[in-house]
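quick one: iron/sulfur cluster bound model?
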Amino acid sequence: MARKPTLSPSKITTYLACPVKYRWTYVDDRGKWYLRSKSYYSFGSTLHRVLERFHDTGDAGVNTTEEVMAAYEESWIDAGYASAEELAEAYGEGREILERHVQQATAQPRESKTIFVERQFRHDMGEFALLGRVDRVDEYPDGTLEIVDYKSGRESVEVEDVATDIAMACYQLLLRHKFPGVPIRARIIALRTGHSAAASMTDEEAADFEQTILQLGREILSEEYHELTPVFKPLCLHCDFLPLCRKHPEFAEL
Ligand code: SF4
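yep, here:
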């Protein structure tokens, strides 16, 4: 039996940003030859890996600042930095971020407890399965489950940013299905400052969002990707696939 197609927040946001980019990333194998390492992905992956170990209650070896710094050194990913100076600067920033995070997390007894780190959730939407990997889920004494998402490039975050983020809405939907009747909240932490904001969907908003994802999913999965014409937009200037799109006879750069 054919496996059910899957959609994730990354796939959905890629499609919304540019369907042609979705083609080169997920549909057409040629795209993989054009992908380049990015320093911000390396930096984000490194920090996520260390924070996963710090918050994982099953990982007894990463609790103090010293242990976090040792885990940081072990987890560091070099790929994508333009120079040794850029890499050294990022490494220093990462140290500061982690030191502050550990300090904030250990300054006073926590009200909540972490129940999942880097956990994938899945929900069968009929025509496809919605998948989402959450950085962390904390449980509060009143039973609320809080999804925590780390943003390694951000310095600030507002409630509105959380409320309008497709990934955060997908995660809420996934946890709502996994834990029916349990209050679910989503929080983004801007790692560069430690600032955070949280929002949650009402039942009505969640039902509307589920319908939107269903319709969007149908559109994404039925798109005729090989017939799409790439359209130039500001995003193209930073896109790995620009050389591929330039080969299309109707691609006009402004
Ligand atoms: S270069 Fe532009 S049109 Fe082509 S995939 Fe990238 S964003 Fe889309």
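The chain has two domains: 1-22+111-223, 35-109.
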